[in-house]
Design goal:
Elements: H1 9-12, E1 18-27, E2 30-33, E3 50-54, E4 57-67, E5 70-75, E6 88-93, H2 95-119, E7 123-129, E8 132-137, H3 143-158, E9 163-169, H4 170-177, E10 190-196, E11 203-206, E12 221-227, E13 230-235, H5 236-258, H6 264-274, H7 279-290, E14 298-300, E15 303-309, H8 315-321, E16 330-335, E17 339-344, H9 351-362, E18 366-368, E19 372-376, H10 383-392
Parallel strand pairs: 15-16
Antiparallel strand pairs: 1-2, 1-6, 2-5, 3-4, 3-6, 4-5, 7-8, 8-13, 9-10, 10-11, 12-13, 14-15, 16-17, 17-19, 18-19
Bound molecules: zinc ion.
Length: 394
């Protein structure tokens, strides 16, 4: 006989941060509890994390997943504690993570609804991380289309739209809901539906994930990136922080691009050094620079070159940002610890050929490939002048 369906606790009380339960089964470092309190993942939403408290000790949960036997919770180590089936445990959620997923997931319902409504664009896949929503769409959307959809979404978020969870059997589902379900329909005996809006709502999908009670909790959605069929969004304070960072960079870039004198390099250096931001901030700024190289272009020997002295920037930041570099340029950066980085997106001047010539002169250490090379510039008096001379004679 098929197992009776019981509504999981995480659907019933999604806002509860802790709960007592009993150990039902033990398998190595994995447990089943009497309460389905931790979400096992699914539908793009990652599984919950948290701890269990047993014998006055806390055990972090490193994985939660579901198999045919039920929901398993894996802990890192049992230590020297003897766990017993039937004993009581306290289950504690990593609430910050869970709540963030609830908000991200709920935002995705709304965005997918709007994209379908105004562009007949379906959501093929969605993934969530803390504050992040990635959506794979059925058609390529333009930036304008996405911004229009986001504007509508943020209006709905601001108006305080409720989200309802409805659990019905297959018969009732067919009768009342199937017709107006967006996306995949369900053949399950018990169907869980998520509705946006009062009464019959304006959007209905079959979904087993966890959502907020009211869309106003999301606060807002901001576009992080749009590439091909992938839409990357940030929600809640993650979106706001990102929007401010981006604006700050744009203001700096606007200031810089209005000036055309040779002090530019020095100014960029000062601006970057004055940014008391994490390396990730540096990567973002570098990406912006790499995708706008024409603003700092100097032509030497017919080649488009850009020179920077960015003493706070290291190899990792440069390499992660280099993916955004536009075609046909040679970029030379003096970075952290007296290292000179050479990046080339111009086939006629490979980075390693430039570094080879520099090494012959400086006798320092270095190397690289066609796209990226680095050399030490210790004891080199005017490294930028030296590189310029090498390029002149290339
Ligand atoms: Zn959902």
């Amino acid at each position: 006989m098929a197992k009776e369906f019981s509504i999981p606790t995480y659907w019933k009380v999604p806002y509860q941060e802790e709960m007592t339960g009993k150990i039902r089964k033990i398998r190595e470092r994995e447990f089943q509890f009497s309460q389905k309190f931790f979400y096992p993942g699914g539908g793009g939403q990652l599984s919950d994390r948290g701890t269990i408290v047993y014998a006055d000790k806390e055990f972090p949960i490193i994985n939660v997943y579901k198999d045919e036997e039920g929901i398993w919770h894996e802990i890192k180590s049992k230590g020297n504690i003897e766990f017993e089936e039937g004993k009581e445990v306290l289950l504690k959620l990593d609430w910050k993570r869970r709540y963030s997923f609830m908000k991200a997931h709920s935002s995705q319902h709304l965005i997918s609804h709007i994209l379908e409504k105004i562009y007949q664009c379906r959501t093929l896949k969605a993934n969530f991380e803390e504050g992040k929503v990635d959506i794979e769409t059925s058609m390529k959307l333009s930036l304008e289309q996405v911004l229009k959809a986001l504007e509508q979404a943020n209006d709905i978020i601001n108006s305080g739209t409720i989200i309802k969870s409805i659990v019905v059997d297959q018969e009732e589902y067919k009768k009342k809901f199937k017709q107006r379900t967006r996306g995949k329909t369900s053949d399950e005996k018990t169907v869980r539906l998520i509705q946006l809006g009062e009464d019959d709502g304006f959007d209905l999908v079959c979904c087993g994930g966890i959502h907020v009670k009211n869309l106003s909790e999301v606060k807002g959605i901001v576009l992080e990136n749009l590439k091909g069929y992938t839409l990357k969004l940030l929600v809640d304070q993650y979106g706001l922080t990102f929007a401010n960072q981006q604006r700050k960079m744009m203001i700096v870039l606007e200031e810089l691009t209005q000036k055309k004198d040779e002090k530019l390099v020095e100014m960029i250096q000062n601006k970057l050094n004055s940014f008391d931001v994490l390396q990730s901030g540096n990567v973002k700024l570098l990406k912006m620079i790499f995708s706008n190289l024409q603003h700092w272009k100097i032509t030497i020997n017919g080649l488009s070159c850009v020179f920077f002295e960015l003493l706070e920037i290291d190899r990792q930041a440069i390499q992660s940002a280099a993916k955004e570099m536009i075609e046909g340029f040679l970029v030379v950066i003096i970075g952290k610890n007296e290292i000179l980085y050479i990046l080339s997106s111009d086939e006629s001047i490979p980075a390693n050929e430039v570094s080879k010539k520099l090494l012959e002169i400086t006798k320092n250490k270095g190397g690289g490939n066609k796209a990226f090379a680095q050399i030490s510039i210790q004891k080199v008096e005017n490294p930028l002048k030296l590189v310029k001379d090498v390029i002149k004679n290339f």
